[in-house]
Design goal:
This protein is of the alpha/beta class. The chain is 37% helix and 18% strand. Strands 7, 8, 9, 10, 11, 12, 13, 14 and 15 form a 9-stranded parallel sheet that branches. A two-stranded parallel sheet has the order 1-4. The protein has a two-stranded antiparallel sheet with strand order 2-3. The N terminus is likely disordered.
Length: 398
């Protein structure tokens, strides 16, 4: 009987000991955990200079503040101070262009290190401008001069021609550019052109006009791409005088560049230069070359209105890698609406054969009425009216 009573008690003693050991281990583990937490708390509370610097983002006291010599203002400083530095898409590449014997250009891109360190934000929009800012110039694309603010190529190769261009669909259909010149000479004509012409029409401002800065801003807000119209010497000069500041074949290249820069400083936000008259000047390659070279260097295009059969613009422009274009047709040689509409139909036929065409007109009431009516009809025939910059033939890729 005793044996039966004591056997179960003896069998339960090992289990009790195992429970006791588990309980002891739990107590020890809990003690270590508490000690670890207390240790971390004490470490966080200690006067660690490194921790303080991280928390407050203050540089170490052992490193004195370094002063930098004054430098030119960075056009991207405002953007960089707000966050990640910004960069141009081409700032990470070396670009080499070679003109071949057949006149084509081979462009070679090779990688190079970007300036600075750390990540940068690459700006992708290179064509066009935010419509909300279209009346405001990009300061990075301007330089101050005694003759005004002149256009320049900006950081990373950004050109005024691209910044102020009117974007187009990119479709490879039939495209036509209409350029209406003489803006600024007549207040009513200028106001009508900006108000009534479709925003796809390019407007050219005569540098001898009035209130050009105000008209420029209104035209840009309305969505127009714009040019400046510079007077060049015609064959019958001085009997036919284009006006003050005319570029002349008999004066020095330096003086002609001064006149060009004075014209350029009248307004901003234009994609290029267009001639007013200039049959003699455009036929003189020696006089023309330094002027077109300066236009090219500043990231602009040149539009030849196409009225001079002896023009050397194409030869010089290709040699110096200048984006250029030629007018195919003067639309308002006969100042009647019906006659202008017939010219516009002829321009459409030219575009049908070539794929593109450029029409030139002036800001007369008859021209504005005809262009507006024709523009409404031509869109239904699958033809796109584009800014002149999209038809500028480039010797180089943008």
């Amino acid at each position: 009987m005793g044996t039966d009573l004591h056997a179960p008690l003896g069998q339960n003693r090992p289990a009790a000991r195992r429970r006791s050991r588990k309980f002891s281990f739990a107590i020890v583990f809990a003690a270590f955990a508490v000690a670890g937490i207390l240790g971390l708390s004490l470490y966080a509370m200690r006067g660690d200079d490194a921790l303080k610097r991280v928390a407050s983002n203050v540089p170490p006291a052992s490193k004195p503040e370094q002063t930098q010599p004054p430098s030119k203002p960075d056009p991207n400083a405002a953007q960089q101070s707000a966050g990640m530095p910004r960069s141009d898409p081409n700032s990470g590449a070396n670009i080499e262009r070679t003109l071949t014997d057949d006149g084509s250009v081979v462009t070679k891109y090779t990688p190079r290190s970007r300036d600075g360190s750390g990540p940068v934000m690459i700006g992708t929009q290179r064509i066009g401008q935010d419509p909300r800012m279209a009346a405001q110039p990009n300061d990075a694309l301007l330089e101050n001069s005694p003759l005004g603010r002149l256009p320049i190529v900006g950081p990373g190769g950004q050109r005024p021609m691209d910044q102020y261009a009117r974007p187009w669909s990119g479709a490879r259909g039939t495209r036509i550019a209409i350029v209406v010149g003489g803006l600024g000479l007549s207040q009513t004509g200028t106001q009508r052109a900006i108000r009534d012409l479709p925003p796809t029409v390019t407007l050219a401002f005569a540098v001898s006009g009035n209130s050009l800065q105000r008209w420029m801003q209104e035209a840009r807000r309305a969505g127009h791409e714009i040019l400046i119209q510079v007077p060049f010497e015609p064959f019958d000069y001085p009997t036919n005088d284009p006006g003050p500041g005319t570029l002349l074949t008999k004066i020095s290249a330096k003086d002609n560049l001064g006149r060009l820069h004075q014209a350029m400083g009248e307004i901003t936000n234009y994609t290029g230069v267009m001639n007013y008259l200039g049959g003699r000047y455009l036929s003189d390659a020696g006089a023309l070359e330094p002027v077109l070279r300066d236009i090219s260097k500043r990231g602009l295009l040149f539009l030849d209105d196409g009225t001079s059969a002896q023009s050397k613009t194409a030869i010089v422009a290709k040699a110096i890698e200048l984006p250029h274009a030629f007018g195919d047709l003067t639309l308002d040689g006969q100042l009647q609406k019906d006659a202008i509409l017939k010219k516009l139909d002829e321009l459409e036929r030219i575009a049908g054969r070539k794929g593109t065409a450029i029409g030139i007109a002036s800001a007369f009431d008859e021209s504005i009425d005809a262009i507006r009516q024709w523009s409404e009809e031509v869109s239904q025939r699958g033809i796109e009216i584009v800014g002149i910059s999209s038809l500028a033939s480039e010797s180089v890729e943008p």
